[in-house]
Amino acid sequence: MMMPLRHLHRSPFHRFPFHRGGHANHRGCHDHTHRIDASAANVGKPECPSESRRIGPTVDPYIDQLFPSRQDSSAFFEMLSDPTVIDITVDIGRPVTLHFQNDGHTSSPQLPMNSNVVTAQDVQAIWNRVAGTSDNLLLDRCVIENTLHRVSCLRHFDGTISGLTIRLAHTTPDVHSLTDDFKTYLALGYSTLIFGPPGSGKTTLLRTIAAYLADYVHRRVVVVDEIGELQSVGTARRMCVHDSMTHADTILSVIRNHTPGAVVVDELMTHEDVTSAMTASQRGIQLIATAHADTLENVMGNPVFRDMLGGVQHAALSDAEMSQRGSKFVMARKTEPVFRGAFDVQRQQLYTHLGRSVDQVMSSRPSV
Length: 368
Prior knowledge:
Structural class: alpha/beta
Strand content: 15-25%
CATH architecture of the largest domain: 3-Layer(aba) Sandwich
Mean pLDDT: 77
Radius of gyration: 22 Å
Number of helices: 11
């Protein structure tokens, strides 16, 4: 019988040294937060493959034509083998540009390639090929066929496309690379919020968790997939968001109609998404979801996510407490958060008891 965890010492993913009997560089636990040694584990950042990486047969020929020579094209595709490459931008009037991760800094380094200057015809040709159907041509993003790479549009005021961002999907790690501690935490049924900035590896981790829960915990897992990024999820079932339903409606449909033991959702973004997530929690369903945020404080400060973390109310203090704190009121949670825990992908930091971690942040802030 598995017992509840007191401490999680490492990242959800083992890196190479752990598979050869190496020892993790453990750090101390501060209250309900565990910080992971980033040199020992990096979520969503696979080792560099030995051969050049291609984007996909749908797009490769069109990208290839943007380079003046075979040598320049080969150099570009060879660069894609670098696991720190997260985006390719193809903008009218500019060369093809690679963008790299930068250890959590706001501005990521970029490298303009030795390509021809991109034209409006180039951009439109790539988008027409990726989108495929006339219905998809009106969307702003879609996934490249037979891959997990995503293409998103920049548009002019008149709706025409001015540029494309190709987000390169990381290889989904094998579920055996999840640490035993994290496997136990998930197997206990704890709902977990995964947060981080764009490109930090949230979706990669989400796919791995979905496959683990379905194939090894044997939980009935349903993945809510909005644009096709949540493939490669083992035997988990997948519910796609189609034209007649919103993201939030699809989450509710899964809960009502498919008897899930766990629901996996990428990118909670709207009040409606959060309301659907709260419905899942109230029905005893394990929820694994991602959100865009840099820190836990950012998650708490987002009005959309506030109720999901327990809400905020102002409590009056006694005169004795006021003299100690210097304020008549303090902020406090209204209810328990939807999630038992949270994982900060960028800092490799796990909050094992999210409610108490939220309380700690609130207690350090003056009430307004």
